[in-house]
UniProtKB/TrEMBL annotation:
Species lineage: Bacteria, Pseudomonadati, Pseudomonadota, Gammaproteobacteria, Cellvibrionales
The species this protein was found in: Microbulbifer rhizosphaerae
SMART domains cross-referenced by the UniProt entry: AAA
Protein known as: ABC-2 type transport system ATP-binding protein
Keywords, alphabetical: ATP-binding, Nucleotide-binding, Transport
CDD domains for this protein: ABC_DR_subfamily_A
Transport among keywords: yes
GO MF annotation: an example: ATP hydrolysis activity
Residues of the ABC transporter domain: 5-234
Length: 321
């Protein structure tokens, strides 16, 4: 299937000379939830802003739903809804007026039935006559989403949708984003909360220092890059890892009551059978046993650190040459 967004060779150097994006290639599939992860200043907002036509690229191209962002700016813009990081909207207007007005900005004929459906979907219908300033933070955020969807775009960008939102609201937001996807909208979100990507995304892209360093199906990523841990609780604490187990990838907890065995998920031979055999041989008993997989957060931190170390090595090498 044709991707709904196709980014090719995208670069951005700001007027001051800072290069925020370097030769980015990225395809977004129709109907997916794509999470763009990256540390502060990685280039996430710059990338979104280019696709939405707010920032001009220095090089490269973006096709969104068949249109070129630079040549067919208006057409592209009408296909895209953007919920920016900052909540900026007219505090004195009512919810209904604000959302209706946004639709008009895109040259769309009024459609009260659609706006009603949207406000109901976002649990804002009861508040349609309230002034924006009288709403809670979470509701204001939902108004921003309603505004972004007012012109029936096929693509929705959410830049840090749940920054500063409490845990309960965050879960409501996730639920709502899933419902939007069900209704056929493609969603691209940036987030610092890796659990958000882990919870919602179909695919994950990691951006660091203006480069997309990885794009992967979330489940594949967690399987490919993840480690699994097998923890054994010992009835009799040990003071050190016994000699017979010394060559295995094991750690002993500080109080000696837990042995943790790490293994690679993708490996065909995990070595667990051998580990259990040796435990038996050493007469080490255990009370219970549980496993844990690496979270996306651990994978992400590892990736960004790894790349950082790699580029530092590269810089040192270049400096020496
Ligand atoms: N208008 C601008 N002029 C010059 N530099 C800019 C401009 N906008 C952004 N930058 C720089 O480009 C880099 C990438 O910024 P960007 O906002 O895209 O990052 P981000 O990944 O969205 O970060 P955050 O997670 O903090 O929002 C940063 O170093 C930023 O300072």
């Amino acid at each position: 299937m044709e991707p709904i967004i196709s980014v090719k060779g995208l670069g951005k150097t700001y007027a001051g000379g800072f290069t925020a994006l370097k030769n980015v290639d990225l395809d977004i599939q129709r109907g997916e939830i794509f999470a763009l992860l990256g540390p502060n200043g990685a280039g996430k907002t710059t990338l979104i802003s280019i696709v939405c036509g707010i920032v001009n690229p220095t090089s490269g191209s973006v096709i969104a739903n068949g249109y070129d962002i630079q040549r067919d700016y208006r057409l592209v813009r009408s296909e895209i809804g953007l919920v920016p990081q900052e909540l900026a909207t007219d505090a004195f207007e009512s919810v209904w007026a604000t959302v209706n007005f946004s639709r008009g900005l895109f040259g769309k004929a009024p459609n009260p039935a659609y706006i009603e459906k949207l406000l109901r979907q976002l649990s804002l219908w009861e508040k349609r006559d309230s002034k924006i300033m009288a709403l809670s933070g979470g509701m204001k955020r939902r108004v921003m989403i309603a505004k972004a969807l007012s012109h029936e775009p096929k693509i929705l960008f959410l830049d840090e949708p749940t920054a500063g939102v409490d845990v309960e609201l965050r879960q409501d937001m996730w639920e709502m984003v899933r419902e939007l996807r069900e209704s056929g909208v493609t969603i691209i979100l940036t987030t610092h909360y890796i659990e958000e990507a882990e919870e919602m995304a179909d695919r994950v892209g990691v951006i660091n220092h203006g480069e997309v360093i990885l794009v992967e199906d979330k489940r594949t990523l967690m399987q490919k890059m993840g480690e699994k841990e097998l923890s054994l609780h010992l009835p009799e604490p040990l003071d050190k890892v016994p000699e017979i187990l010394a060559d295995l990838p094991l750690t002993l907890s500080a109080d000696g009551s837990q042995l943790v065995y790490r293994f690679d998920i993708k490996s065909s031979d995990t070595g667990i059978t051998e580990f259990l055999r040796r435990l038996n041989e050493a007469n080490i008993d255990f009370r219970d046993l549980h496993t844990r997989e690496s979270s996306l957060e651990e994978i992400f931190v590892g990736l960004v650190r790894g790349k950082h170390a790699e580029s530092e090595q590269q810089l040192t090498k270049e400096a020496q040459e």
